[in-house]
Write a structure and sequence with these properties.
Strand order of the largest sheet of chain A: 10-11-12-14-13
Strand content of chain B: 5-15%
Structural class of chain B: alpha/beta
Radius of gyration of chain B: 33 Å
Number of helices of chain A: 12
Largest interface: A-B, 93 and 112 residues
Shape of chain A: elongated
Largest sheet of chain A: 5 strands, antiparallel
Number of helices of chain B: 22
Distance between the termini of chain B: 101 Å
Strand content of chain A: 25-35%
Oligomer: heterodimer
Distance between the termini of chain A: 181 Å
């Protein structure tokens, strides 16, 4: 048995020795570097010491090796669970926890500790914190100090071994030191010393390409542009059509004196001009820079906006739409129409010759007797004055009960009557001027009236003036229902039309017959606010001017013949040419419209020669003249020739601007009339005067 | 009946125009490329007559191009190059991303480039067209040549611009075609007459630029690209017309061979030649050796009377060209060398400067034959007796006046007379500064009158002008007033007529009345004008009146200034 043992030991020791030699060699190679596990090193140490013993005292090896053997076997004798690395909860329902080396069941240790026991254990047992349960055996293990230390080290992320130095200097496996032995003894590949066939093929191809001239060596690139005679063959046919369409960019404006570095002193800006320049928007400025003066050329600084200006020019060149603009190259003199000279159109009134003073307020209306000897004027100071035309003497003043709106001399030379309207009354006056026979005849005409048998209800009350009124010249008094604004006679002198402007009612115009003391209302309907009315000088037509239209009625047929569109906002006055085919309308929006009734219902000509509203217009009875008075204080006399030939249109030429009236209360000339026989014009104004222009 | 229903915006002006964005899409170019293409090809937007119709009813602000123009662009080979370049950039970026440096190298070497020759030919089918349009090109090139060599654009561009500018200036010198020069606060304007075309360009003063941030340099660079090509071809052709060598070579004989010692200090070997060219001090080499009198005199036919006038003009012109002939200038170091050298050489003068100032100086300050020394400082220490020391403005004023002006007013430390713009041509009714009148008188050969007389004259002139203007202005007012006056006279009756002496007043009155009559006639005729004509007439008259007003204002300002300065002058005279 002993022999057997010794043989076994010998074998064992032999193995150990070989092992040792191997390890020792390894250690020597690594220069004592610890590459092995801690446990492994421990084991080797043990083995080393053991084998040293063996080497030194081979005689007593048996006992030592026995000791080693025993310790070895004791270690391996512990209870091993052989189930392997499996989840242990699989055994949770079984009384055993696995199997030992012999295949016998390992029973779970009895655990009858409840929570309370656990707690008491926790409180009382000082080692409780280092007690862990072995999952494999189910037994409680108390960790030793080294183990606890190990756990701590691992938790801190350190190496398990205390002695291991992780920061030792690294030694390159391959270093510059040439070693006598190769690291590997692998023989060299064949390809490492035989030239590559593929490369050879490629090079061969390149060589061939170079030989054939397919590949040329790289030349340095030409960077400077090459110029040549681009226009050597100028072909006029090559000019494209679009070049004809092309609008060349306009050249930049050339600088003026103000841009000079040393400009004349007048081109420099004064202080206030400079301030104004600075406050202007850069786009609105007339000059884009401030003119400056420098004493010498050396003092001139760089212009800070130079690049800006170039850039703006660039933008202009490629962003601005271009357009050929036809410059209006007209001589302004050519625009003025060629009219006959006023000199050749004489006679017409040119100078103011007489001023009729006496009225204390504005003179609304004037009228000249058919003989041309007397002038009557009605004013806002409630008087009517009669003047002798040639001497400007006031012959008679008649006071009436209100501001006089209109006066009209009877155009019949055999009757001497003047119609005067104030408030709602129209009075027929006999001034008693001129031929006594005529005066008495007209008085008789009025007094010879006999009342008809059947008395009708009249629109207007006719009354005969008596007493003081009669002495003053009042003959008939007509009381109207509304304020009367205008009175006008028919050419024969028997009929008298009155205007009572009213928006609502149909009673705006009434026509009186003086000889029969009869009144009629010609219109049933209200067609707008009536401004003025007028009788046709020859034919039985009646003109009614409302705000925007002039209506022409035929009195015999009792129908509307024409409606003239005046193209203006508000008609103020109207006059009818003695021939009867032309009408002029003045309006408050500064226009004078000339209608040719034969041509159209629209104005033949509109004149805008006044600067303010027109108040009145008038035709001369014989001469081809018409005049207009306006709020700007001027009377404009125009030559208005009407030809008998139907093909020729009337010729209208303004011939004279007559000024004299002063403007008071924003009113200028209120009424104009022509002398019946002479080329004279009378005008009455807001300054209380009547003026005669001859 | 029948036929297809007509749809809106499918015919007429709507189909003639195309909006910018649509055009861009049609050409499949990015906006930047489209812009570049438009600049190069000279395509500009158009303003349609009926914007709303073209805009399909919308009133949004849009730029429109003619559809024809865009169609024309479709065939442009440059468009293909643009696309290639776009692809190149993409490939290059990819190679950079992958760090394939050899690939980057290769690609950079094969960078796609384009030439603008055909575009120049197409835009300017004849040479004269190109010369006519060279103004902007010159201004731009001269601006770019003053840029610093770092930063805003490629160094090659700057060098090229400089080279072309120098070539141009050398041509102008060789052809003696400079006409006018103007020192403005912006820069120096030059005007030359090349092949019958007046060309004006501006060169900024020699200072570093502070580059503005709100300027798109890409646009400027594109323009410069076009302009350099244009200018190069124009220069080539111009040199050819004068039998000069292109690229310019200095005339081999004499002068500059002497100065070779100091060249090394000034410039590198490679650059010294171009710098010498830029110095503008030497004449250029010709392909055909020059004959003394180039311009062969025309055969003289004494019978032709008309020719004499032309000949006179020609002679005058010739004389102008040789304005500085025989004069020797020396430039002090503080004056703008290049500009002065250019101008003086253009008019046949000789010019030099200090050796250390610039390359290419031909003689020293000590040269006894120098006639004019140009200095821009109040005093100078060492003065030579036999030469004039004058300020640089003299040269420019002489050029503009076409005569050698008296030098007294331009001596050192003297207050300079105003420098007038030669580009202003006063028409009737414009304000003419008195200095200009003086110059005109000098040109006619009159002697400059004594100062006092002159002033009086000026004043008289001004007074007359003012009177005229006033009379114009007041005409209407007077007419209005006249009626009132007459009325008053009438009211006062005979007492007035007694006092008036008959002889004196009458002739004036007749004139006056005639004038008044005419004025009234005119006024009455104006009343009868049609509305549209009246509007136009009023507008024209308003413009005229404003013109007169401005002229009057300037005259008044000048008068006030002169009045303020008179006492000083008189004092000075007394002192003298």
């Amino acid at each position: 048995l002993y022999l057997l043992y010794s043989i076994l030991l010998l074998i064992f020791n032999l193995i150990c020795f070989i092992l040792y030699v191997c390890i020792w060699f390894c250690i020597s190679r690594q220069k004592q570097k610890k590459l092995l596990h801690t446990g492994m090193s421990k084991f080797t140490l043990i083995l080393t010491s053991l084998n040293l013993q063996v080497l030194d005292k081979c005689k007593i090896f048996s006992s030592v090796s026995l000791l080693v053997f025993i310790t070895f076997s004791v270690r391996s004798q512990d209870i091993r669970n052989t189930v392997g690395n499996i989840p242990m909860e699989w055994y949770k329902d079984y009384p055993h926890i696995g199997y030992d080396l012999d295949g016998k069941k390992l029973f779970k240790p009895i655990r009858n500790k409840d929570e309370l026991d656990e707690f008491l254990d926790k409180m009382e047992n000082p080692d409780y914190w280092r007690t862990v349960q072995d999952k494999m055996t189910g037994a409680d293990i108390r960790l030793s100090d080294e183990q606890v230390d190990l756990v701590h080290r691992l938790q801190q992320g350190k190496f398990g071994d205390v002695n291991f130095n992780e920061y030792e200097p690294a030694i390159d496996f391959f270093s510059n030191e040439v070693m006598i032995h190769p690291v590997t003894n692998r023989p060299q590949d064949k390809r490492s010393f035989i030239p590559s066939l593929i490369e050879k093929e490629k090079v061969g191809k390149l060589v061939h390409a170079i030989k054939m001239g397919w590949i040329k060596p790289r030349r340095p690139k030409e960077t400077t542009p090459q110029y040549y005679d681009l226009w050597a063959k100028e072909d006029p046919n090559s000019i494209l059509g679009r070049h004809k369409m092309h609008v060349p960019a306009p050249k930049m404006k050339l600088p003026g004196h103000e841009e000079s570095y040393n400009p004349p002193p007048e081109y420099l800006m004064s202080e206030e001009e400079r301030l104004a320049w600075e406050q202007q928007d850069p786009e609105d400025r007339k000059l884009s820079f401030l003119p400056q003066k420098f004493a010498c050329l050396r003092a001139v600084p760089a212009y800070s906006r130079f690049i800006h200006e170039r850039f703006e020019r660039c933008l202009d060149l490629y962003l601005c739409p271009r357009q050929r603009k036809m410059r209006v190259n007209v001589n302004p003199e050519d625009l003025i129409p060629k009219l006959p000279k006023p000199k050749d159109l004489q006679p017409f009134p040119t100078t103011q010759s007489l001023v009729y003073r006496g009225h204390s307020s504005l003179v609304r209306s004037i009228s000249v007797s058919p003989s041309g000897q007397w002038l009557v004027s009605g004013s806002d100071d409630c008087t009517v004055r009669f003047w002798e035309v040639s001497t400007a003497r006031c012959l008679k003043t008649v006071e009436v009960g209100g501001a006089v709106k209109g006066v009209a001399w009877n155009p019949n030379p055999s009757i001497c009557l003047v119609a005067v309207s104030y408030d709602d009354t129209v009075v027929l006056l006999n001034p008693g001027l001129g031929d006594r026979l005529v005066c008495t005849a007209s008085d008789q005409l009025i007094s010879s009236y006999e009342e008809p048998e059947e008395v009708k209800d009249q629109l207007v009350q006719w009354a005969v003036a008596e007493g003081e009124g009669h002495e003053q010249g009042h003959r008939l008094i007509l009381k109207h229902p509304k304020a009367v604004r205008q009175v006008t006679w028919h050419g024969k002198g028997d009929y008298l039309a009155c205007v009572m402007p009213d928006n609502g009612s149909s009673l705006q115009v009434v026509i009186h017959q003086v000889s029969k003391r009869r009144t009629q209302n010609p219109f049933r309907k209200n067609k707008g606010l009536v401004q003025c009315v007028s009788f046709h000088p020859i034919r039985p037509y009646f003109f009614v001017a409302t705000q925007r239209y002039v209506r022409v009625y035929n009195l015999i047929k009792q129908e509307l013949t024409k409606k003239l569109m005046a193209n203006c906002k508000w008609i103020s006055s109207m006059a009818i040419h003695p021939g009867g085919d032309n009408v002029i309308c003045g309006s408050y929006d500064c226009r004078l419209a000339w209608f040719d009734l034969d041509l159209s219902t629209k104005p033949y000509k509109v004149l805008r020669h006044h600067k303010k509203a027109l108040r009145s217009v008038a035709y001369h009875r014989h001469y081809p003249l018409f005049a207009s008075g306006s709020d700007d204080g001027s009377v404009i006399v125009c030559h208005g020739m009407v030809y008998n030939d139907l093909l020729q249109n009337p010729l209208i030429v303004p011939v004279k601007v007559l000024k004299g009236h002063t403007i008071t209360h924003d009113l200028g000339v209120l009424d104009v009339t022509f002398h019946p026989t002479q080329p004279w014009v009378f005008s009455s104004g807001s300054d209380g005067t009547v003026r005669l222009f001859t | 009946m029948g036929g297809l229903q007509k749809k809106k915006y499918e015919s007429g002006s709507a189909t003639n125009y195309i909006s910018r964005n649509k055009a861009r899409k049609k050409l499949s170019l990015s906006l930047a490329d489209f812009r570049r293409l438009c600049i190069l090809k000279g395509i500009y937007p158009h303003e349609p007559k009926h914007k709303k119709k073209v805009n399909k009813g919308s009133t949004a602000p849009r730029t429109f191009y003619l559809l024809k123009d865009i169609r024309f662009l479709l065939h442009e080979p440059i468009v293909g190059k643009f696309r290639e370049y776009k692809i190149f950039v993409r490939k290059l970026r990819k190679a950079y991303g992958k760090a394939e440096w050899s690939g980057v190298q290769r690609m950079k070497e094969n960078k796609p480039a384009y030439k603008l020759d055909h575009i120049i030919k197409e835009r300017y089918p004849t040479f004269i067209d190109a010369v006519r349009d060279v103004d902007d090109a010159l201004s731009m090139c001269f601006l770019f040549s003053t840029f610093a060599r770092t930063g805003k654009c490629h160094v090659q561009t700057i060098q090229l611009c400089r080279r072309l500018g120098v070539e141009w200036m050398n041509y102008i010198i060789a052809s003696r075609s400079l006409r006018k020069v103007f020192l403005s606060i912006k820069g120096i304007y030059y005007q030359a007459e090349v092949l019958g075309q007046t060309i004006t360009w501006i060169i900024p003063y020699q200072f570093a630029h502070d580059h503005p941030t709100d300027v798109d340099y890409r646009v400027m660079a594109t323009f410069t690209e076009l302009y350099t090509t244009l200018l190069g071809f124009v220069n080539f052709r111009l040199y050819q017309t004068l039998n000069l060598v292109y690229p310019p070579k200095l005339d081999g004989q004499g002068e500059f061979s002497l100065k070779s010692e100091c060249e090394e200090d000034y410039a590198l070997e490679s650059e010294s030649y171009s710098e010498k060219l830029a110095a503008l001090s030497a004449s250029l080499a010709r392909t055909v050796p020059s004959v003394e009198d180039e311009e062969a005199e025309l055969d003289h036919f004494p019978a032709e009377g008309l020719n004499t006038k032309k000949k006179k003009k020609k002679k005058k012109k010739k004389k102008n060209k040789k304005l500085f002939e025989g004069l020797k200038f020396f430039l002090n170091r503080e004056v703008p060398r290049e500009s002065l050298a250019f101008v003086i050489r253009c008019f046949g003068g000789e010019v030099s400067w200090d050796k250390s100032l610039c390359i290419g100086s031909t003689y020293d300050e000590t040269d006894e034959t120098i006639t004019h020394h140009i200095v821009d400082r109040p005093t100078i220490d060492k003065q030579y007796i036999n030469r004039y020391y004058i300020q640089p403005q003299w040269v420019y004023d002489c050029v503009n006046g076409k005569i050698l002006l008296p030098v007294e007013e331009y001596f050192l430390g003297v207050t300079l007379p105003p420098h007038l713009s030669p580009f202003v041509e006063e028409s009737e009714g414009d304000y003419v500064p008195p200095e200009k009148l003086k110059l005109l008188a000098l040109q006619k050969g009159e002697k400059p009158p004594e100062e006092d007389e002159e002033e009086e004259e000026e004043e008289d002139d001004e007074d007359d002008e003012e009177e005229d203007d006033q009379s114009e202005d007041e005409d209407e007012a007077e007419d209005e007033a006249s009626l009132a006056e007459m009325e008053e006279k009438r009211a006062q009756g005979k007492s007035l007529s007694v006092k008036v002496t008959p002889g004196k007043v009458k002739p004036e009155n007749r004139m006056r009345t005639e004038q008044e009559e005419k004025a009234e006639e005119k006024r009455l005729a104006i009343m009868m004008m049609k509305k549209r004509e009246k509007y136009l007439y009023d507008k024209i008259m308003f413009g005229k009146k404003r013109h007169v007003r401005e002229a009057n204002k300037l005259a008044a300002k000048r008068k006030a200034h002169d009045d303020a300065n008179k006492p000083d002058k008189k004092k000075k005279k007394k002192k003298c």
